[in-house]
Amino acid sequence: MMNKKLLNILVLGVSSNVSQSMIAAIKNDTFPCKLYGACVNEDSIGKYFVDEFYVCPYANAENFVDWVIKFCNQHDIDIVFTGVEENLAVFSQYNTMLEQKTKAKIIVSSPEQIKIADDKLLTCTWLKNNNFNYPLFADASNPDEVNELLSRTTFPVIAKPRNGKSASGIFYLRSKSDLSLIQNKTNYILEEYLGTEQDEYTVGIYSNRFGEFKNLIIMKRILKGGTTVIAETVQHPLIYEECKNIALALQVKGPFNIQLRLHKNKPVPFEFNARFSGSTSIRALLGFKDLIACIHDYIYEENTIDNFLMPSSGKVIRYYTEKIVEK
Prior knowledge:
The protein is α/β, with parallel strands linked by helices and 327 residues long. The chain has helices spanning 17-27, 64-74, 85-101, 111-118, 120-129, 143-152, 237-250, 280-285, 290-298, and strands at residues 7-12, 33-39, 52-55, 79-82, 105-106, 137-139, 157-161, 171-173, 188-192, 200-207, 213-224, 227-233, 254-263, 266-273, 315-317. The strands form 3 sheets. It has a 6-stranded antiparallel sheet. It has a 5-stranded parallel sheet with strand order 3-2-1-4-5. It has a 4-stranded antiparallel sheet with strand order 6-9-7-8, sandwiched between helices. Strand 10 and strand 11 (213-224) form a beta hairpin.
């Protein structure tokens, strides 16, 4: 086991609300660390939340991987986190090389898990093929699938970008004539409308570095602009079993997040995040400290991390604030 010295932690993409939530979860804990942050934007508010800030290349830049390797070695980085999907895709592809050329642990899911989670059509297809609950769906570019969906459900239906983030690009189609709204758009999925806005849940899951399921937290949530603004822990055996079994079937390691709604008395997942999510700091306040558990799991190689993953009853309200950075 590694001695519990001051750790050097790098968080990439600190303009991202997910990365900022991860930073808050770290800083809200009494964890001995030096926190490095990096972003492509010099004027990122995230630079004021870390001990040292640096500008880094975009994930698709030719020198991105080399920059990460050089930075980790220069600053003796122990572990790297990011909430940016583009960074995660690169890390997943080059994870073995990164860990061979640095001592840093890169927390990232497998390329296949990221592929399934980042594409809502693949998410629904995976759920269906693995006998889990799923929303009725259709590839919006396939007329036969669209007609089949419309024969099995009623309006409204939801049109989503397959690789969309938050609520960006979503259309609520209330009649066949509304299909014209996505006529010239590519890579869309149509889904049946599930439950109501009051039936939405976010589920944070943590499985250890060996792929052993440890625990999960179920939070009933209210959204604003695709972001959780109110979250309250709940106990729900059906949701617990459905999400635990999904994590086991997908062979998740580390953090995982499932969005779902109750529909006809069943939990119906509709979105995966193969990473820490924007509610990481909320979960930590409610006793489910999956990011801290991850550090103890991957850095200290502790086999008992259960104490970090014990949800408590409570409600969290997210609010916005400001910070003056220049005078």
